[in-house]
Amino acid sequence: MTEFDYIFLAVLGASGILGFMRGFLKEAFSLVAYIAAGYAAAAWGPHALPWFSRMVDNIYISIALSYAVVFIAVLLIIGLINKTLSSVISQIGLGSADSILGLFFGLVRGLIIVLVVVILLGYTDMPQAPWWQNAKFSGVVIEIVHYLKTFVPSDMVKYLPY
Q1: Could you give the number of structural domains in the chain?
Q2: How far is 23 from 130, CA to CA, in rounded Å?
Q3: 85 found inside a domain
Q4: Within a domain: residue 129?
Q5: 162 found inside a domain
């Protein structure tokens, strides 16, 4: 095994353990929270801009603040809901099933993280390095990337590595 394999297993393991500890519902709700916060920032950030532009002279800082404050506010509100929901779930007794599903969620998240990093590193010379070429898992990960490319629009595929 090479450095690639150890990093691959560490990312998968850490994400899986985190998912197990937090549980599926908390992990899934966190994902929904980030997506909702991003959507809210895109939708409501421009509406907050006039308020921030009165307080800050630099327009770029005002824009950044308007989007960031909306994003963080929505994330905090959903986080409070998530915390309440988690305590209700623990009282219901879904603990072990929730943890096992959280483990699988974490493993999938870890694989997605690895895939994104491998795709980004595909634009560099790293895939030609011996520690990458001789890795046990690099071929499997690249095969998954090839499979996922079949879902990418054909005009974008030419820009992807591998």
Answers
A1: 1
A2: 38
A3: yes
A4: yes
A5: no
- Residue 97: domain span: 3-157
Residue 78: count of CB within 10 angstroms of its CB? 20
pLDDT of residue 155: 85
Residue 44, domain member (yes or no): yes
DSSP letter (8 states) at residue 153: -
pTM, entire model = 0.72
H-helix or E-strand spanning residue 160: none
Question: Furthest-apart CA pair in the chain: how many Å?
Answer: 58
pLDDT for position 106:
94
- Segments of the chain scoring below 50 in pLDDT: none
DSSP sequence for 86-142: HHHHHHHT-HHHHHHHHHHHHHHHHHHHHHHHHHHHTTSSGGGSHHHHT-SSHHHHH
pLDDT at 51: 93
* Burial track 104-120 (b if 16+ CB lie within 10 A, e otherwise): ebbbebbbeebeeebbe
